[in-house]
Design goal:
The protein is mainly α and about 240 residues long. It is about 85% helix and about 0% strand.
């Protein structure tokens, strides 16, 4: 399909079709072209974003796994700002430190040390899950546009197709002839709208599914990190 479009473009036929396309047909083609352009911009942006996130996540997870204590990864977390794990770690570590201070203050009044209990670690877990939700929201930004393009572009192309076919029938009725010269412009407009609609929708569908798989993978990776953080924190604090 793309080869046919390219051949038509270099032969000049596409420009001839556009020159004879109705105003409504041009509007449909312009909207589809805009949606396709924005979709490709989002695809490249998300590809770079997810690649950076996965790279920094792997780096931070490796450093955290080889550290002797949960507090040793604080500097690494601040250095890898692209990593979802960094912000999750910072949220959990700050909440853990805050709870320890509150326990120590209460214990100082009674001249004893109060260890953290399961309720405290539940609070830390909820804080880290909230941070994960916020990080996933960042990764999901603009992905909805891909879904909108994937679902609406074929129907917009179909709308342009219907208008082109109607134009062909109108020409037949006006001229009283069903010759190729009469119906060809409308049919060509209809087919061009179909091609542009599919050209906008197909990459958007593929990219949307790819983005969802990436976000699911990052989310699972982050959830496993939360469990690892809590397990190590419980060993150190209790």
């Amino acid at each position: 399909m793309n080869n046919v479009l390219l051949i038509g473009l270099f032969s000049g036929s596409v420009w001839q079709i556009l020159s004879q396309t109705s105003a409504f047909g041009l509007f449909i083609l312009a909207v589809l072209s805009f949606m396709s352009f924005v979709s490709w911009m989002i695809i490249f942006q998300k590809w770079r974003q997810y690649r950076a996130v996965e790279k920094d996540n792997d780096r931070f997870r490796h450093q955290f796994s080889h550290s002797r204590g949960v507090g040793e990864s604080l500097g690494q977390a601040k250095a890898t700002s692209n990593a979802t794990l960094s912000n999750i770690y910072l949220a959990g570590f700050e909440e853990l430190s805050s709870l320890k201070e509150l326990r120590n203050e209460g214990g100082a009044l009674q001249n004893k040390v109060n260890p953290l209990d399961n309720g405290d670690f539940d609070i830390v877990e909820m804080t880290m899950e909230k941070a994960l939700s916020e990080e996933m929201s960042k990764l999901q930004k603009q992905v909805i546009f891909l879904a909108s393009t994937a679902s609406s572009a074929p129907f917009m192309g179909l709308l342009g197709t219907v208008v082109g076919v109607m134009d062909s029938f109108w020409s037949i009725g006006q001229r009283g002839s069903a010759s190729l010269a009469v119906v060809a412009p409308g049919i060509a407009e209809a087919l061009l709208a179909t091609i542009v609609g599919l050209a906008a929708a197909i990459p958007a569908v593929i990219a949307y599914n790819w983005a969802n798989n990436k976000m699911r993978s990052i989310g699972d990776f982050s959830n496993n990190f939360i469990l690892e953080f809590l397990a190590r924190a419980k060993k150190e604090v209790r």
